[in-house]
Queue: 2 jobs
Job 1
Amino acid sequence: MVMTYSGAVKVGGPADVHELPDLMISKVAVGPMDNNAYLLRCRATDEQLLIDAANDADTLLTLIGADGIASVVTTHQHGDHWQALAEVVSATGARTYAGRDDAEGIPVATDVLVEDGDTIRVGRVELTARHLVGHTPGSIALVYDDPHGHPHVFTGDCLFPGGPGRTTRPKEFNSLMDGLETKVFDVLPDETWVYPGHGNDTTLGTERPHLAEWRARGW
């Protein structure tokens, strides 16, 4: 029986697996801030990539399994998103990726500095990086444009159900909103599935009607 993916996970609970034709996405919650980590597995090659080694290395390494990972992407420099990074990299030898403007704030060396529009591969699957300035200077989202269906976007802390990620100044808020609108909402369809850095998933269609409301409230 094929289980329906909901994206609802709890710390200490099992991963939820989103099975796509070319890619398997396993979502798990870890750590005291309920961070989401995502393990992507190319179905053609079995190569794996981890998005945010946020916390609880034992849980992440168990999820990764004996096949290991080729790479780990850190969506941004905030500490709750890289607490397990050193241990995961040490155990797997994975290549590290992060946005160029956030790499200095991550205390594990970044092998590949990511720019807007760069491609990150996991096996035969391609992810496109989108640089979104505001939550941090170098936050990146990763877009998987599924050739068999709708796109999928991993937003880190830049977009959640109900609004953009936290910013501290109006300039940063406006920058983040501008980036979300031009690089995400304006170019991806309503069916696009959103995988955030904390909490439940959403879709762009669910959030799109509220863009003006977010602008007006300023957060």
Job 2
Amino acid sequence: MSEKTPVDFWFDPLCPWAWMTSRWVLEVEKVRDIEVHWHLMSLAVLNEDKLDELPADYREMLEVKAWGPVRVVIAAQEEHGREVLGDLYTALGTRIHNREEGPGRDTVAAALKDVGLPESLMDHWDDTPYEPQLRASHKEGIDKVGQEVGTPVIAVPGADGEQLAFFGPVVTPAPKGEDAAKLWDGTLAVASVPGFYEIKRTRTKGPDFSNL
């Protein structure tokens, strides 16, 4: 039997589009021979040098809501192992996005409880000694695709052995079954073309979590 193809996925739990893409990748895991490995990135880190250029409401979201959850998640990784990230992200995303509980302290604390992680991890909400690890994880992902994109970042082994990385795909709702497989195959096909950078069209609706 061949080994599963490793798929590295960088996420920020606040991003609804990354959440949608992550559920698609888990669907792909059922129909293609892949294994997803989760990594943390941070919209707060990504945008910290350009806050003055951002709309006021988005800037406020980054300053007020974005740091706490990723600090807690990186602490969970460092103290309990990277293998907890997948389940913790699922618990966080389900509460933040599907149930519309928002990314506050109570939501994150409840998500920790959902997956059996200690509430003491909430001590990292306002400050954490693991910020260097958070920034290193973020840099690892963003270095693969460049500063002009956000979350999610996906990386897979290319034909030449080097990682092939891309932002997205941004899709709603998350495809299921063979539709998920077709999107996966097509994404890998276009991303593998040397010199290919972007396909894009205007979004006409927001994230649809109805089938998650």
